[in-house]
Backbone:
């Protein structure tokens, strides 16, 4: 059974039909890409998966459970993590605090425990720090900036911190919205290396939206192409590149 | 000069007072705070006490407004609820100050959660208006629920005692205030070392992505309201035990705005900021008055015109702060420290 199954997703805002009967499924451990021209509805799909938009029709099943109607914070707790197209870090916090925030749902400290900070709360924070340092900060090579406020960092590093925060959520599926948009070649290479390492080492499933076609064709296992809210093709990078509908959507037709 | 970090464990890195130098100065501060009441006169002790009470209230507001980003115009009303609760508990049930402090906080926290409930649906200015409504409603109750609050004449209470010790004098009460301030500041700081404080800041910075991180927005907003009004209630309990009387006039809207000014001048979302701001807002009017008194001997005529200027100068100081130091006194202090860290070198 697929890890994530989306059936007949319909989404509209007033008269604007954003998603029309979109179905797809993602297998455990694969890198699944969603591409399409601007306004095709790619980000809207991620927003539906995250629970931020509510589809009019259709079901979303995650690991066999229907999650169509549960709140965003509970979806996050069940293992869906997300990075954003426009960086959505907490600007007033340091890199370390941003990453720690990703682990929010895995911690237990309540209000009273927090105020007294003895016993449980203290142990939990120390354990969290150890885990984050070992598994995330070392891995993403951001040791040198851990105490800096994120608002002072360059764009490429901010994107990397956002990935770090998503990893701290210990997700089963990572939803990445344009992880390399606006990056130079070197930053893109770094990011691709991290994405591939994450998939291999942590057995994570990744759903990725991106306009950088060379990168998408290199790393994806399967690709879905959207145009005007409809799914027009799905398959391996090679199949998709040769698909006549896709060529028409991207390049137009001869008159 | 500090030239590097020599920490060997993450626990050392997470400590609040990281270096032995900062721990040393903290020790010096406590020694000075302990010596102070023996040197100071009645007036200075009175100032210290009202400053301490303002610090506790400002710490509360800074958690709600500074950290969690929910602007409140009703903070004085929560201080008032704490004060009336303490007065009623003392007069009718004969409870001692030690018991009253947490109880006043809890009652105030209960009302704080009630007022915070609309935050599920509203944010920003709209929520701000609900807290303004709370301020007006609670003030109305203070005036008109005469059987409980004594109406506009207010309530008087006996000088408080702790374990049989009379702490009604300025000198005795100084120790009570000091202990409460230290506990309140420690607890506030602790909250921001855990996931609760991080969630508050996340809600302020970007509530949508906070929710997608798995933070239950409504619950954490209510937590912020609860903590904030708890501290306000504790401050209210101190207030009534210090002055030994209260009337509704002690908790008007402009008192709420004064608390907001404290945290803005001090530094929003910063524990030290709340402390600096409360000290600044309480002491500066007194300092201005002292300066004017000094000149009065030389220019008795001019002073008649200059006295009303106090308020203007005070307002001007706040405006200048916002222009030149928008992050408050706490930020200024950080820069001074950073400068001396490298001193005498420039970079």
Residues:
């Amino acid at each position: 059974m697929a890890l994530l199954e989306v059936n007949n997703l319909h989404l509209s805002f007033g008269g604007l039909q954003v998603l029309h009967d979109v179905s797809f499924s993602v297998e455990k451990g694969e890198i699944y890409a969603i591409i399409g021209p601007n306004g095709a509805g790619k980000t809207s799909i991620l927003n539906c998966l995250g629970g931020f938009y509510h589809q009019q029709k259709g079901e979303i099943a995650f690991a066999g459970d229907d999650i169509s109607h549960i709140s965003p914070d509970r979806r996050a707790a069940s293992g869906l993590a997300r990075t954003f197209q426009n960086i959505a870090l907490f600007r007033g916090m340091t890199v370390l605090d941003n990453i720690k925030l990703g682990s929010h749902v895995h911690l237990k400290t309540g209000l009273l425990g927090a105020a007294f900070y003895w016993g449980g709360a203290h142990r939990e924070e120390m354990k969290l720090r150890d885990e984050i340092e070992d598994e995330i900060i070392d891995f993403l090579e951001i040791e040198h900036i851990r105490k800096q406020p994120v608002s002072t960092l360059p764009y490429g590093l901010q994107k990397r911190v956002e990935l770090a925060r998503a990893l701290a959520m210990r997700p089963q599926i990572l939803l990445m919205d344009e992880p390399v948009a606006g990056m130079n070649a070197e930053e893109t290479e770094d990011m691709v290396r991290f994405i591939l390492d994450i998939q291999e080492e942590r057995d994570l499933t990744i759903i990725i939206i991106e306009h950088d076609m060379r990168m998408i064709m290199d790393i994806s296992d399967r690709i879905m192409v959207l145009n005007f809210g409809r799914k027009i093709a799905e398959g391996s990078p090679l199949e998709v590149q040769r698909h006549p509908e896709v060529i028409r959507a991207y390049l137009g037709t001869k008159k | 000069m500090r030239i590097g970090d020599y920490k060997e464990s993450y626990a050392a890195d997470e400590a609040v007072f990281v270096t032995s130098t900062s721990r040393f100065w903290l020790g010096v501060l406590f020694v000075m705070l302990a010596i102070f009441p023996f040197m100071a006169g009645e007036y200075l002790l009175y100032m210290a006490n009202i400053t301490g009470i303002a610090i506790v209230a400002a710490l509360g507001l800074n958690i709600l407004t500074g950290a969690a980003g929910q602007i409140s115009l009703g903070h004085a009303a929560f201080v008032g609820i704490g004060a009336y609760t303490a007065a009623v508990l003392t007069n009718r049930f004969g409870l001692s100050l030690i018991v009253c402090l947490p109880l006043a906080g809890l009652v105030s926290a209960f009302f704080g959660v009630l007022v915070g409930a609309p935050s599920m649906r509203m944010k920003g200015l709209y929520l701000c208006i609900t807290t303004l409504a709370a301020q007006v409603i609670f003030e109305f109750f203070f005036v008109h629920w005469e059987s409980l609050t004594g109406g506009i004449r207010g309530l008087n209470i006996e000088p408080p005692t702790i374990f049989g010790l009379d702490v009604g004098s300025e000198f005795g009460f100084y120790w009570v205030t000091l202990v409460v301030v230290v506990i309140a500041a420690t607890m506030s700081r602790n909250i921001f070392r855990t996931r609760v404080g991080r969630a508050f800041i996340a809600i302020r910075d970007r509530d949508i992505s906070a929710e997608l991180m798995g933070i239950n927005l409504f619950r954490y907003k209510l937590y912020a309201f609860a903590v904030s009004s708890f501290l306000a209630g504790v401050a209210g309990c101190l207030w009534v035990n210090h002055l030994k009387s209260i009337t509704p006039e002690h908790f008007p809207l402009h008192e709420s705005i004064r608390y907001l000014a404290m945290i803005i001048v001090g530094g929003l979302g910063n524990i030290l900021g709340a402390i600096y701001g409360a000290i600044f807002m309480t002491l500066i009017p007194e300092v201005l008055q002292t300066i004017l008194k000094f000149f009065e001997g030389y220019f008795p005529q001019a002073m008649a015109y200059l006295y009303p200027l106090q308020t203007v100068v005070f307002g001007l100081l706040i405006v200048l702060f916002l222009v030149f130091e928008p992050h408050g006194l706490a930020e200024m202090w950080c820069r001074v420290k950073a400068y001396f860290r490298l001193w005498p070198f420039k970079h």
